[in-house]
Amino acid sequence: MSAPAVPPTGAPTRDRDRRSQDLDVTDGAGVPEPVIAPLRGGEPGPRPPFVEHPTHPGVPRAAERDGSPWHPYSPCGQDCLPPAARPARLRSARRAAALLAVVATAVLALPVVALFGRRATDAATYRIFRAVLRAAGIRLQVNGGSTFADGGGALVVANHLSWIDVVALGAVQPVRMIAKREVGDWPVVGAIAARTGALFVDRAGLRALPAVVDETADALRAGAVVGVFPEGTTWCGSAAGPFRRAPFQAAVDAGAAVRPVTLELRLADGRPTTAASFVGDETLAGSLRRVLALDGLVCELTLHPLLRPGPGDDRRVLAARARRVVTGAVARPVSSPVSGSSVAAVQPTRTEATAA
């Protein structure tokens, strides 16, 4: 079977209710495509992404932290990760080889594809992101729709757990991510980010922030789907950070809708896990080793209804609304025990395939 058609950014699609879909498509090689599941009852209720972690470290006030209070902060670190599991060397080696093949193909192909314009680049990166998830043994499940926006620009805002998040968002629809400037200097990753039209922001100071807001607003007006993690850094999933307001100013300026997205990482049996979290001082290589050794990982994305800025809405109001939707109606203090997320809202009608 040929690769699925890419949902073009900002392109109109057939008039239909995306939330009525329930798809589980497997290609001819037995590799699973993302599962699109409906949300029951129309508006999705609170489905916090938190996992059980009653001893999660507290978060000091901004004035009590080292460094600038403007710099993104997360208390999460090695203590949030599960104990090291028995290494699955054969599984890890097989997935690592597949992942290297995908990355090598991307490095060689993207410069050539870029010669054919933005639409061709979007289609290529969309397929590359899906291939990365398959190679790493990660199954993508999308609830509440199949695209972030069917037409016109939209600001996609999500909680931030891992390096997997960017790949998962790009595997749903081409997205221009807002990323820290250092990402552009990373080998391979930086080149791919630049090809996807990433908007880089310098966190060293606030002088460049208005220009980034203006650039983001221009992209939204032009019909682009722009993605951002308003927490500014990764959290393990036991708690969530505050949402930075600057990205929401771009949505207000452009009159663009905001698409809140909740990201959850689960084991193959449905249990929430921090095993795939990328937090603290951990290296990307260390996180990759843990993910590749897992006996199946599910990255679940819940696409909540669009939020549209009202006449009296400013960035503070919009950021607060988006955070309530993404993290749940009631924000829990990080020092309190939290219960695992419910999966009752997801009712696929067909057996879901498992990633290799």
Automatic annotation (TrEMBL):
Give residue spans, biased composition: Low complexity.
Answer: 333-346
What keywords are assigned to this protein? Acyltransferase, Lipid biosynthesis, Lipid metabolism, Membrane, Transferase, Transmembrane, Transmembrane helix
One BP term from GO: phosphatidic acid biosynthetic process
Q: Where are the transmembrane segments?
A: 96-117
Which stretches of sequence are listed as region Disordered?
A: 1-68, 333-356
Basic and acidic residues composition bias: which ranges? 13-22
Q: In which pathway does it act?
A: Lipid metabolism
Phospholipid/glycerol acyltransferase domain location is 154-266
Q: Which GO terms describe its molecular function?
A: 1-acylglycerol-3-phosphate O-acyltransferase activity
Bias (Pro residues) ranges? 1-10
The cross-references to PANTHER family, in alphabetical order and at most eight, read: 1-ACYL-SN-GLYCEROL-3-PHOSPHATE ACYLTRANSFERASE, 1-ACYL-SN-GLYCEROL-3-PHOSPHATE ACYLTRANSFERASE-RELATED
The name this protein carries in UniProt is Phospholipid/glycerol acyltransferase domain-containing protein
* Organism encoding this protein: Pseudonocardia sulfidoxydans NBRC 16205
